[in-house]
Amino acid sequence: MRYLVRRIVLFILALWAISILIFASLRILPGDIATVMAGINSSPEQVAGLRLRLGLNRPLPAQYGSWLKDLVHGDFGFSMLTGRSISEQVAARASVTFPLVGLGIVLALVIGLTMGCLAVMARSTRLRSFCHMLALVAGSIPVLWGGLLLILLFSRGTGLIQIFPSQGFPDTGWRRPAEALQTMALPAATLGLVVGASITRYTRSALNDIAGSGWIDMARSCGMTRNQALMRVGLRLTLPQLVSVVGLTFAEMITGAMVVENLFALPGLGSGLITDIGNRDLIAVQSELFMLAAFFLVIGLIVDLLHRLLDPRLKESTVTGRGRS
Amino acid sequence: MSSSKLKTDVQEGTVRHEDTTAGPSTDPVLNQRLKAPRKGNPLPWQLVSALLAVVLIAVLWAGRSYQQPTAGVTAGISKSVSIGFRLAPANLDIRNQSGAALDQALIGNVYEGLVSRDQTNRVMPSLANSWEISEDATTYTFHLNPNLTFSNGDKLDAEDVAWSINQLMEHHYHDADQLQNFQSVKAIDKDHVQLQLTAPYANILWVLTGRAGLVFDRKAQYDPKTQAVGSGPYTVESFTPNSSLVLKANTRYWGRQHRAKTETLHLRYFADDNAAVNALKSQDIQVLAPITANLAAPFTKDTEHYSVHSGAGSDKYVLAFNNKGSKTSDMRVRQAIRYAINHQDLIDSRGGVDQPMGGPIPSVDPGYRDITNLYPHNPERAKRLMAQVGYTPDKPLTLRLTYPNTYGTELGDQLRSQLKPIGINLQLQVVEFSTWMQDVYTNHNYDLSLVDHSESHDFSQWTNPNYYYGYDSKVVRDLYAKAMAARKAEDTDHYLAQAAQQVSQDAPADWLFNYRITTVTLTGLRGFPLNLNQTLLNAWKISYSPDKPKTSGPAARALYDRPKWRSSDHATFLQYTIAG
Predict the structure, then answer these.
(1) Number of helices followed by number of strands (H, E) in chain A
(2) pTM, full prediction
């Protein structure tokens, strides 16, 4: 309990520090939204008028103060550019990115765990090294190139086997789940393959470490075969490590999926953030970055708590006040 | 910790060593913990692979069934048309937000002005069906069409017109400064509006075809960033910033001539060229504009399904020299750069569609003359000029070229290699548009800059010494003033041509080329404007009827289902994809 309280206090302090950091760093960027909105045929009067209407001529501490006040009240503000509520905008973008990343992770786990286990458990040495090699090769494929390859293979219009749409997200959104899922197929496969390769490597090395340990010997001496021991005891022991990796990968992919989103013209969080920064829509950018930072911290918190749940040794060490090792 | 616990169990087991039941171990405790062995194979691989196969087949089947064309077709004419564009509007606030994408989507379609333009850039009647100009060309009286309405049902009258223009001037909305010599505007009665100028202004009618002349509903309350209430043939059905804009035919449209031919128009915006090309190939969109001439190549070959057109535009790729900069204020340096640039090479590398231009006025604007002979490609002359200033290839002048990242790095690289032999070391600084706006446009902190000036009728920027070019010529200012004060169109044209010639001679910039828009349409699409379609899109004409194929057999089926792509096309696509 004390641990939880400490983590939450740290969490809030970190958020506050992040809010200052985000606000300050964005103000260093050259250019502002008024000049971008006014464009290259604008007069100084027009830009001045826009600044006034957008409230950009207020002193910076006042701007920060009102932003923080709104944040505390759960109001992320309105985008200066699109005039939409930022939380709605983020929700709309997240409704593309989260399913994409979720599907990608599921696919990555299916591929990664299967291949990782195979790379350790398969009887034939050839199959084991084949799995290992495949993971190395797939892991070195740049996401962009992998995506292009999938487009050339499977996209409607250009592909050899024309089954999936390769661009855009339907205007109807998830109200027509079949259509929406179709557009997710290739991007999620791209993410899944590349991330799956890295999960394969993690699983393989973690299982390999465990395979040589006393736990497996013990399990085998209790009568399990090597593979039974690895599946029942080994996998369970690697779980905490895998959960950390998957948690962090998930958080990373929220913004890391940007390349994939751009290639497949999906209006997701990453590509949205880039557009907003380019347009100097600072209120939107700072609120979006803040939400992302909060999300990363929450994921970190969840991973830590899960860790303690999966590995009772950690809990005991804090209860008795001893260190981790 | 856990292994020591197990050890204790084992020890306890040996203490209670009474019955040795059958099991793999001699230890009864361990035997008790042993789970019953599973029958058969512990991992039913056959089952897993069978399931995977079923899932795969289901997905493939779903993919096939999804390929049916989505557009509803009645009596051969499609009810909806999807159009692919490159640049997206960030919001719909046409009074504050700059960018040609907004003009393209909204002017003439959702909002209408007093007057409008056709695709050859001529002024046409719109809300006003006629107008009178006073003798001294300072009073314009517009006669409005009868029974004008906005899409929300409100009546549109002369009060709305006067209110819209007065708001524009009062709040300095976008393009307010284009309405030069403005004195006042008022409604004489409900069908007549009078615009008063302080002095004649030849561009006034053309300016009123754009944002400055748009008429807004003074009674309507709406968020202009996300909604639009206008009097045009279309209304905004939905808008997703940077992604899509759906226009629906306005059922209350007041006019007959511009009534929408297609019920729903989906304007879709593609940040990525390849995504756009893919959408066209899979027929998710029926038009793509613009497309680079290189990417259009595969479509040019497939005349059965696609038509590729190039149309005139007012985009000028201006390589501006900082005329007040320490290095480029010397006219000989500026002239040398102009002589050194091989415009035809630049154009050829982009697909050979664009047009060379020798001065600031494009072919669609008044005052256009072919003055490409003023600074022909002549590296020797350029070298001599640079030598006069004291620079040679061995002792080069270092110049910085700052330009927005939307134009890619290729143009900059080409310019660098063209300027190297004459003794200029060009350093490229590719920045975000907002940074360019700050450093170059606002602070004038640059040597060379490259940007696409897409607007038509924008010659006045050469008469403003405070503009980022820093170009100041009294001769040009006087000629421009004469052109704007002229009563006859031919006089305006004549003086503008003289002014353009003078600007070009002074070499305050180089005009790399006049960008021509390449548009690809599916066979069966009609009425899509080809000229100027990046700033003006009279969408009411657009219709799509997927014609029945004339031939039968596999080729005809392909037309109806979707185009079949030969392996050579894959290769071409891949090649451009990778090159792009």
Answers:
(1) 15, 0
(2) 0.75
